[in-house]
Amino acid sequence: MQSPKTVKSLETLGRVRLSESFFMRDFLYSEISQIEGVPNIPDYPDLAIETGSQLCQQVLEPIQQALGRISIRSGYRSPAVNAIGAANKNQYNCSRNEATYACHIWDYPDASGVQGATACIVVNSFLDYYETTGDWQALAWWIHDNIPDYCSLCFFPKLCSFNIRWSTQPEKIIRSYIAPRGVLTRPGMKNHQGNHESAYTGFLKMLNQRD
After folding, report:
1. Does the pLDDT at position 89 exceed 80?
2. The pTM is what?
């Protein structure tokens, strides 16, 4: 597929079904694109579809099936859109393009040839628990224990939204900008292996009561 240059071809790209619940169009909205007037369109749609499909099928769908509806805060960023975000980092909080390849820029591999895709999401059913407890780690550990194909997580204070990444070379790192800030786990840390069910029992109990 060529990079869309017309409304019709962009509609065709948007209608590509990445998984049971998600279409490419779900990931193309960008506030930076809207305000700055730069189209958020992949240069290489086929690779964006390939990596986005893996993100949706291996990571997002299992979360949604287990915990209920998720909301997409941001997904794909074109190099042009991300470059604007990086140039205005204090306002838009984007990393430079080279650091975003195989992350939010789905259609470019990184310098090592690794392919990947990232979305920033909110797990709607987790919001009440988080707003009551401030405990983001419950969701982090649940994903770590139950979604084997996730690559990395990074949590943010607003809505307990978080970047979740699929990659051909999983890192299995969890970071957070919510206190306690920093790295929760990574390979080699003592807490990386084993079962962490005790960390999310309270959330699951609340979720079951709602059901």
Report:
1. no
2. 0.93
